[in-house]
Amino acid sequence: MNDFDGIEEPVRVAPVGKKRKPSKDCHEREKVKRRRHSGGGKMPAVICSHKKNSSVCQAERLTERDLQINFESFYNYNTKVKQDQALLHLITVRKVQRRRKKVEEVDRQKKREVTNEYHLLSEHHPTKIPVCKATFCGVLGISKDRVTRVAKYYAVNATARPEQRGGARKVDEFEAKKQLVKEHIETFTCRASHYGRRGAPGRKYLPSDLSVKKMHKLFDQQNHDLVSYSLYYSVFRHSFNLAFGHPATDACSSCAKFHFRVKDPSLGEDEKRRETAMYILHRRRARVFYDMLGKVEHDAVTVCFDMMQNLVLPRTPIGQAYYSRQLYMYVFGVVLHHGKGSRQATDDVHLYTWMEHENTKGSNMTASALDHCLRHELKDALHSAQKLRLFSDSCFGQNKNMNILSMLFAFLKTEVPQITAEYTFPIRGHSFLPVDRVFGRIEQQVRKQETTLLPEEYHNIMRNHGRLHIYGQHWQAFDFKKETQCFVKAQKSFKLSEARMLQFLNDKVGFKAVYNSDYCYHSVLKRGKTWPSFRPSLLPRKSTVKDAKKRDVLRLLSEIGASDHVQAFYDDALSQVAGEGCDSDE
Q1: So what's the pLDDT on residue 3?
Q2: Angstrom distance (rounded) from CA 108 to CA 102
Q3: H-type helices in 207-268, by residue range?
Q4: Would you call 187 helix, strand, or coil by DSSP?
Q5: Most buried residue, 21, 36, 206, 299, by CB count within 10 Å?
């Protein structure tokens, strides 16, 4: 059974594959090869005994600087083939112009067809300086046999000698096949894990009913090219960070229940078929949410939002941190979604942050952050749109409550009355949203830092992934909860926790308990109240840090030896603590 849901995205080549390629840089054989091709341990020197003013060898015209220039320019090429090509620029190969008279047959000199002239470069002479073969080899640190082989091959073939060591050379052929394999793997779609990212950063997941063997068979059927399974598997492992299925973290309880029920040996065939049908129906219902999320109309603005997992301060790898309470940083993310497979630009991501000692983590803060984003950051996009589509999970304390609904009613009535708005919630356990992809990238970068002591360090990371809005500097919080109690009826004719979709129409809210049903409209506004008069007051700052957490944080700072600057921040942040009855997120 295919258990692949969530937001699909195309497969891309990863900078680091699932299995890293072995590095040969530290092998002793590679070290010797690098020394040989880099001139290590060699010194340029004139080693001939020709007299001065000789027409064959004018090595006396070369200075120490000239010797070093020739040596360095030759070894700037790090491969033998390129070095051989450089040698040919200093060697002149000519046909033999004159031969000596033949001597006795035993002492007869070998008959040569060509003769070589050797030259070196000089810093102060525009032309090359003729030298003998011994000096030529001594300055460049190479053997006479190598020079002879290079010149002989050039005399016969009129080109530099190619690399002929190492057997058959099929690098280009394999590269072409590897490129075909990469293009085939990129035709599949994958998804990121919601919470299970810690053990495998950057990993994406293919459907569980796939395997590398099946993918290789599909490749053979489509390309009719002889690519071995080992080559296909090597590209899959080294060029892509992919796995199959998805981690069983934050899994859907209904899916888990169906899996166990189907495997129950006490069930009969009819009951198993019934359970399987119910499971398929559940999966299709969950899939409807993602189909709706992926279909973005040109005149609609699609917004997804959620809370990130709490970040801790101070963050340190020492053992005491695992047993100590730490200060929380809260992150609320809002993403402007452009449809299935779309890329997330930095300007489309808005990250709202506040600290535990600054205010609580509740619906007042999420409503204030979302209100600020809609009124200021998405103002231009909304004024030119006809529809607003909102997507979030069904967390009642943060997103799915009347405080958020009241804020949206007031915003729509006062800022964009021409817009119709819909608010959609997923099936529980199938709530992976585009904003979770942003959180995943932030978590990957956070894990690369062993120690994080100040909020600014988190802020610098978040700026790489979206537009940062810091509480108290860029936005303020308002008491939507108190104002909602004055405007919204206490007794409502619908149960908000059962809603799958909500629609905002005039002063009524449309309610759907099933995605494909019709809206049932309900009035939530009290008699005599109007949404344009909905004006919440400023929410005062309130610390939720308890005295026990304060002691743990200060003890942890003393263990890591925090600087005076860091200690001053925590002293100020922990100057006020909450009472025992205050809610916190520990």
Answers
A1: 40
A2: 7
A3: 212-223, 229-239, 253-262
A4: coil
A5: 206
Give the pair of three-digit tokens for residue 426: 């997923």
Q: How many residues does the chain have?
A: 586
Which residue reads 């082989």 in tokens? 149
What is the end-to-end Cα distance of the chain in Å, rounded?
39
Amino acid 529 reads K
Q: Phi and psi at residue 103, in whole multiples of 5°?
A: -110, -165
Q: Quote the tokens at residue 183.
A: 């293009």
Positive/negative CA dihedral, 7, 13, 14, 20 = positive
Beta-strand (E) ranges in 98-148?
114-120, 129-131
Is pLDDT of 43 > 60?
yes
The average pLDDT across 262-280 equals: 82
Q: 85, 90, 84, 41: which is closest to 70 by C-alpha?
A: 90
Residue 535 DSSP SS3? coil
Per-residue pLDDT, averaged over 73-83, amounts to 87
300-307/387-391 β-pairing: parallel
User: Is the pLDDT reported for residue 584 higher than 50?
Assistant: no
Two tokens, residue 487? 């405007």
pLDDT number for residue 200:
64
pLDDT digits (tens, 9 = 90+) for 200-245: 667 888 887 789 999 999 998 888 778 899 999 999 998 998 888 7
With a cut of 80, say whether residue 107 has pLDDT above it: no
Q: Are 75 and 37 in contact (CB under 8 A)?
A: yes
**Residue holding tokens 């304060």?**
550
Give 391-409 as a 3 state SS string. Answer: ECCCCCCCCCCHHHHHHHH
> Sign of the C-alpha dihedral, residues 433, 434, 438, 444?
positive
Rounded CA-CA distance 170/240 in Å is 23
Place of tokens 């506004």: 525
Least confident of 265-269, 526-530, 567-571: 265-269
pLDDT above 60 for 115: yes
pLDDT tens for 365-374 read 999 999 999 9
The yes-or-no verdict on residue 20 having pLDDT over 80 is no
Whole-number Å distance between alpha carbons of 438 and 335:
9
The token duo for 415 is 């800022």
Dihedral sign of CA atoms 352, 357, 362, 364 in order: negative
Integer Cα distance of 336 and 435 in angstroms: 9
Contacts (Cβ under 8 Å, ≥6 apart) of 585: 310, 328, 356, 361, 544
> For 111, which DSSP code?
-
Q: Beta strand pairing status for 520-523 and 311-313? A: unpaired
